[in-house]
Design goal:
alpha/beta; Alpha/beta knot; six-stranded parallel β-sheet; 10 helices; elongated
């Protein structure tokens, strides 16, 4: 049975200030919680229906509380609650290891929409990109909507937050830096590398001028609309991420 304090605590984690204070976040759903159970994340407690618990083998060091459907609804952030919610420790921010730049890394400059960030994390996972670096003004990766949108990929993709200008100033100029810009060159005709940084900008403003300064290779995803004067103004940030990641990986992936 859930206590009033537990309900209050879990619901508080839907707000960033309390996630920061307690260094915890929540995850909902069978697939998401199951994947996090087999990840580097430390699960503090699981709240689940008996029908879910009966089919699981949960490590003894994880606290488990059986709840009713009504109780689950009181702590869920979903319109239709799933069978399980997990309380998880937010990992401490570690210094960014320069070795990650031996592969492709995504850098997000002020992505604001939780759904976009969650989808980009899922896209990175699909294309084998294991690290994403977010600007300090990018939406919190542990926002319940972000976590849900990752569909479990947050278990495999490491999320870092950093002062992007400071980061770029500290990196070797030999690390290629790509950015998606409307005044860039056609991505399909440009020389790409198997390692480096791909910068994606804010949904409405794109990449900030401060960060554009560090971009060595400006990339543009061409439109194939029959009427160039009558087409979408731009692509959704997550869609752009998928297209760019696909093109980089298409050129270098070998089974």
């Amino acid at each position: 049975m859930l206590t009033k304090n537990t309900i209050k605590h879990i619901n508080a984690l839907k707000q960033k200030k309390f996630r920061d204070e307690f260094q915890q976040f929540m995850a909902e759903g069978d697939k998401l919680v199951s994947e996090l159970l087999h990840s580097h994340y430390k699960i503090i407690e699981i709240f689940a229906l008996n029908e879910w618990l009966d089919n699981q083998k949960i490590p003894e060091n994880i606290a488990v509380t059986a709840v009713t459907t009504d109780e689950l609804e009181r702590i869920s952030s979903l319109t239709t609650p799933n069978k399980v919610i997990a309380l998880i420790e937010i990992p401490q921010q570690q210094a960014i290891d320069n070795l990650i730049f031996n592969k492709l890394v995504l850098v997000l400059d002020e992505i604001k929409d939780p759904g976009n960030l969650g989808t980009i994390i899922r896209i990175a996972d699909w294309f084998g990109i294991s690290d994403i670096i977010c600007s300090k003004h990018t939406v919190d990766a542990y926002n319940p909507k972000v976590v849900q949108a990752t569909m479990g990929s947050i278990a495999r993709v490491k999320i870092h937050y950093a002062d992007l200008a400071g980061l770029f100033n500290s990196l070797s100029k030999e690390i290629p830096v790509y950015g998606t810009l409307l005044n860039g060159d056609n991505i399909y005709t440009q020389t790409l590398t198997s390692n480096g940084i791909i910068v994606l900008g804010n949904e409405s403003r794109g990449i900030s001028e401060e960060i554009q300064y560090f971009i060595q290779h400006k990339l543009y995803i061409p439109s194939y609309a029959e009427n160039p004067q009558n087409k979408a103004e731009s692509l959704n940030a997550a869609i752009a991420a998928a297209i760019v990641c696909a093109e980089f990986k298409r050129r270098f992936f070998k089974k």
